[in-house]
């Protein structure tokens, strides 16, 4: 009967005055429309509702478990959910994807070194209470706004395009809210980027890159394709020389040298990779490591171009100096900034536009709201710098906040507006553990210094590659995915990459 209990919870926040007459044929429509997300028989029409009248999860009562609502299922949100005690809290997660992406290995999936499922971890495995506990849920939806004064978030379901049901709006009352909405790719307002380039942030981006790459390889093999067109189709351009752009270029050159040379012999001499960067590549790494990476990438056939992209057209990009660069595949990786939803929220902001937090990751001036990961930064009054947009920051903030919320809950202050008297413990402190990046051909960079000026281990080569792989396989969240990754690496080594275009 738990579905019936859930259904009554969903429809219960509609105010009695706004409830339709029971004889009205549309009486059950809001709840049914929501449920139709799970059915194959969509209900097309629904009565119009005002934002405050959406059905949803109503506020918890004093005798019920308090509810933590987590927005986002990335590094920060998932690490937080993993650490939250389901005996203390009901956990509700809202995100447009039902899994966490292990981003450091995402570039490897674009060329088939790893399979997509190896880097995606379902949320139900990270926090089993979400699928088990009657008051805990995962909602495949986007948060559209937050009403911090009413302790409520407004959401809209995600649909798979126009062929499916219309998005359904609903609200969730929270006792504690954790905003972990991540960031947005920076395009610097350059025209055509959103339309023609592919970002590398989600599994569907990696799938798009793989399909496009294989499509271009096959198209260029068709008889009668002019030479110029063949060259364009097989020109892969990567914009942005940070770790993601470099790792992707390295993976691509490996793929070309090993797999394309063996299996696409007709076109192997046409395929090229160009990496465009406005400044130095890998600017956060030690100078020696940067030089090493530059030499290795050049040896692998990656052309490094210093330039600023001015305009992106469907088949070519135009640089600041007027140079035109035709491309068949364009991958954009020039850093991140606050997403439109973060910009729209009426909450204090940190320098740079992220959500402002204090030393305990609380959003000042509103109660029971916290923010972690790429979407948050310290408010100016803390005197602390904005932390880098890194998984290691997000993950540690998630862990810290889970412990703090458990402590608050154990002290009986888990419900909304009750945390005033609680001793929160030490503030969050971030210690950088270093950076790593692969550059292809079984080589990687490992820079274990806390900052560019600090002393410490900075090395490159095969041993670094071994360290990189060992470090990441131990960081993969579940044993299941660890196993997948290991088997994928062995399979690629022995049989080469999978080049079927599925
Ligand atoms: C290819 C790649 C490689 C990387 N490699 C490394 C590395 O090697 N080391 C490292 O430290 N860092 C790395 N990073 C950076 C790291 O992935 C990020 O810093 C980290 O993901 C930030 O975690 P987060 O939880 O803040 O955001 P994310 O992981 O981006 O998660 C944000 C979540 O919010 C959800 N969301 C977005 N909008 C909404 C909405 N309106 N409503 C509800 N949910 C929403 C998203 O679907 C997502 O689930 C890499 C990033 C990329 C893209």
Structural class, judged by helices and strands? alpha/beta
CATH structural class of the largest domain: Alpha Beta
Into how many domains do the coordinates divide? Answer: 3
Q: Number of DSSP strands?
A: 25
Write out the distinct hetero groups bound to the structure: flavin-adenine dinucleotide
Function: Alternative NADH-ubiquinone oxidoreductase which catalyzes the oxidation of mitochondrial NADH does not translocate protons across the inner mitochondrial membrane.
EC number: 1.6.5.9
InterPro entries: FAD/NAD-bd_sf, FAD/NAD-binding_dom, NDH-2, NDH2-like_C
Family: Belongs to the NADH dehydrogenase family.
Describe the structure.
- The structure is a single chain.
- The chain has helices at 2-11, 29-35, 75-83, 106-110, 123-126, 129-132, 193-196, 203-219, 227-233, 243-263, 287-299, 340-344, 391-410, 462-475, 479-495, and strands at 56-57, 67-71, 90-95, 99-101, 120-122, 137-147, 152-157, 169-173, 176-179, 184-185, 198-199, 235-239, 272-277, 302-306, 309-312, 316-319, 324-326, 329-332, 336-337, 355-357, 369-371, 376-378, 435-440, 443-447, 458-461.
- It has 502 residues and is α/β, with parallel strands linked by helices.
- The protein folds into three domains: 1-36, no CATH class; 65-183 and 338-410, FAD/NAD(P)-binding domain (3-Layer(bba) Sandwich), CATH 3.50.50; 193-333 and 434-495, FAD/NAD(P)-binding domain (3-Layer(bba) Sandwich), CATH 3.50.50.100.
- The strands form seven sheets. The chain has an eight-stranded mixed beta sheet.
- Strand 12, helix 10 and strand 13 form a beta-alpha-beta unit.
- The radius of gyration is 25 Å and the shape is globular.
- It starts with a helix and ends in a 7-residue tail after the last helix.
- 42% of the residues are buried.
- It binds flavin-adenine dinucleotide.
- Residues 71-77, 94-97, 103-104, 106-107, 142-143, 180-182, 200-201, 244, 341, 373-375, 389-392, 394 line the site of flavin-adenine dinucleotide.
